Amino acid sequence: QNNEDREVRKAAAYALGSIGGAGAVQPLTQALLQQDEDEGVRGGAAYALGKIGDNATLPALTQVLLQQGEGTGARANVATGLGEIGGGGALQALKQCFLQHNESEDVRWYAAFALGKIGGREAFEALKQVLLRQDEGGSVHQCAARALIKIGGGDVLQALTQASQQEDGAWAQYWLG
């Protein structure tokens, strides 16, 4: 936290995530919640908190994920971290982010990936909902499809077939083979 070199602070955040332990949570949370001016350091802190996997960090991670003014890189790392933590709190935050059409496409891509990692019916339904929207960007559709396939189940083929029949559904043909 006290080093002037942002690369040193970012490396320290990643190292704390690898080491883990309760003592790492407080400084990483402080760095994440805008106490470090560098987005890369905040992103490293988010990644590290996800790797540690402490549910006590969910409020801070959720706050940053849903904060529109925060940088895309930090929020993408938060989405990844929430995917590592998993559970109901992480799932709700990721769904809220992913379903917002006005959200950054990059952040939504990472949220979709994290939803696929968490899995379950609720994640599947959120991914399917976005998959079937015709006004989405291509990368969001692609990642939603990839996440649905990761979750698996009999409904994946049906969702992809339905998406392929839409006006802009040529991209879904790729996933159908």
From TrEMBL:
| Tree of life domain | Eukaryota
Name of this protein: HEAT repeat domain-containing protein
Q: What's a Pfam family in this record?
A: HEAT_2
The record's annotation in Gene3D superfamilies points to: Leucine-rich Repeat Variant
Name the source organism. Answer: Zooxanthella nutricula
For this UniProt entry, the molecular function terms from Gene Ontology, in alphabetical order, are: oxidoreductase activity
Q: What SUPFAM superfamilies does this protein's entry cite? A: ARM repeat
What InterPro entries does the annotation carry?
ARM-like, ARM-type_fold, PBS_lyase_HEAT
Q: What is the lineage of its organism?
A: Eukaryota, Sar, Alveolata, Dinophyceae, Peridiniales
Q: What stretch or stretches form a coiled coil here?
A: none
